[in-house]
Structures are given as C-alpha cells and as structure tokens.
Design goal:
binds magnesium ion, 26% strand, alpha+beta, globular, 12 strands, 10 helices
Length: 320
C-alpha cells in the first residue's frame, strides 16, 4: 500500500504499521477516513495529545489543553472540507490532578467543538501516568478534498498566517511570556472549518492541514499527489511575533515559519485561474487571508526557494 507520506522516521513507522495491517486496513494516509453511510459520506479522524509531548501544564490551563486537543482533531475535518457533527474524547488523568481538572479539560474540548458547529458525543475517563487526551472527530462531507488530487499547473495556497504557534513555543521554552496574540495562536488555534468548506466548493484539488510545519506537511501532499511543489518562502504570510522570535534565535523569519508546527492553517492546491476577486471574496467570507505561495509541477518532493537559493528544511517528526 502506498500511503503517500513524506520521508522521516515517524512516517516510516506509519508505513510499517500499514504493511503489518495489509488488507485489514483500507484508505490510510489522508487527513480523514471516509465511510459511506445512508447515502452520505462521513469523515472521521483521531488525534492524541500527551502531556510532556504536546503540551506542558505550566504553560496552559486545563481548558486551554482541552481546546488545543480538540482543535487539532477538528483541523483534520477542515482539511477535507467536512462539516463537524461532533467528537468523542478519552481522557487519562494523572494522580496529581485535582478533581476539577477533567471538567476543565472537557470545558475546553466543548468550547472548541461548539465553535466548529459540533457537539461532544461521548468519551472515556481513566487514570493514567500523564494527562492524555484522545479526540475522535466525526463530520459529513459532500466532496472530500484529499491530499492526492494536486496537478501540475495548480497554484499552492495557504490560509491565514504561519509561525506564531512556534513563536509562542520558543518563548515558553525559554521561560518567557509571549504577548497575547502570540500566546493565543498556541493556546487557542482555530480549526479552519469554514475555510475548508469554502475551498472545497471552489474546486480545491488537494488539501492538508498544517500540523507539523509547512516543510513537512507539503511533502505529504506532494507524495500523495505524485507531483512536486515549488514554494517561495518569501511569500509565506508571517504570523504575529514571528519576526521577533526568529530574530531571537538568529534565524530567517520565513524559514522559521516554514518549520513551525501546530499552525492548523490549510495548505491547498487550487486550479489555475484563481483571481484577485476570488481571494478578496475569501477574505470577506472567512475573515482571514488566502495567500499564493507556490506552484505544482511535474516531479516529486518539495522545492523550497528563497530568492535564487534552494533551501532544505524538514517538518516536525516525533521520532527524529
Ligand atoms: Mg492533518
């Protein structure tokens, strides 16, 4: 089974799992699984958040931890153009947690799913070594936009802004306090549900949400579609605080943003002929920008350019 994922040890492990499963699995490798039921297509995805891996409790309160966990899962529904129905959330609660903590986490989960138009459908609660939240989301979709449909000649576009979540993370790791808009990008990411639906209706050919950073996630879209992506780093729309955080680290802000995880923006291949009027309408309808950052060509992999220079960057990998 060709999963259409980019390179890296995390994705090698996923390929090995898929090989083990063989024909006991099907349709792996996209942001969502699709199941036909009652004449409609349901989209499903699951996302795990683990204390010490995805968040630290000294950085976020329980409600924020719940919001982020749910937002990350809901973002996969956005990435296929689906409309959320609801979610199931399983919590593992460590011994030091207060009796209020599960309720606080689920308050954040509930707020995030409500913003996306869905509800909490159920869950599970257990004791565990660290705070862990596993969120399974369910949506409905008319025409799923997969990662695999990009064609040479398409434009490569991105919603919103990139890098602010990483900017917050770098400050928090350094023991500093991010400004409110920077912290918000990390603590309250907004799954781009309405943007995903808008782009699906505008004949998007392929789409993926940016969870591990543009450099890595673009490679998945290229591999799934069997095409190459050429991306101009100078065109990346930089989020709040990115320039300052990159300057602190002594790195270029566009490269910083291309390697920033957990932006939860959408990377989308759109057919040629998208006009300025279209992007203006997107901004008016959705309230965030839609920026062209590159093109789809024949070939394979992602070519990142900055001026005349070819740049080599990788996305976040849990096992690197
Ligand atoms: Mg995804």
């Amino acid at each position: 089974m060709n999963l259409g994922l980019g390179s890296g040890p995390e994705f090698d492990r996923i390929r090995a799992i898929a090989k083990t499963l063989g024909d006991r699995a099907r349709g792996l490798g996209d942001d969502c699984a699709f199941v036909e039921a009652g004449g409609e297509v349901l989209a499903l995805s699951v996302d795990l958040s683990v204390e010490g891996v995805h968040f630290r409790r000294e950085w976020l309160d329980g409600r924020e931890i719940g919001w982020r966990a749910a937002a990350g899962a809901l973002s996969d529904l956005a990435a296929v153009g689906a409309t959320p129905i609801g979610l199931l959330a399983s919590l593992a609660i460590p011994p030091e947690s207060s009796s209020e903590e599960p309720g606080c986490v689920m308050d954040g989960v509930g707020a995030a799913v409500a913003e996306s138009g869905g509800v909490v459908l159920g869950g599970d609660l257990t004791a565990g070594p660290v705070l862990t939240i596993d969120v399974a989301v369910l949506g409905r979709v008319n025409r799923p936009v997969k990662r695999s449909g990009a064609r040479p000649g398409d434009g490569v576009w991105v919603t919103g802004w990139l890098g602010a979540s990483r900017a917050a993370l770098e400050l928090l790791r350094a023991g500093r306090r991010p400004d409110t808009p920077v912290r918000e990008a990390f603590a309250h990411p907004h799954p781009r549900i309405s943007a995903g639906r808008w782009l699906a209706a505008r004949e998007a050919h392929a789409m993926i949400d940016l969870s591990d950073g543009l450099a890595g996630d673009a490679a998945h879209l290229a591999a799934a579609s069997g095409v190459a992506l050429v991306i101009d780093l100078e065109r990346l729309p930089l989020g709040s605080g990115v320039a300052a955080a990159a300057a602190d680290l002594g790195v270029d802000p566009h490269r910083f943003a291309a390697m920033g995880g957990e932006d939860y923006e959408l990377l989308v291949a759109l057919p040629p002929g998208i006009s300025e009027a279209d992007t203006t309408r997107f901004e008016q309808d959705i309230g965030i920008p839609l920026t062209r950052i590159g093109s789809v060509t024949a070939g394979e992999g992602v070519s990142l350019r900055q001026g005349d220079e070819r740049v080599s960057l990788t996305g976040f990998d849990h096992f690197r």
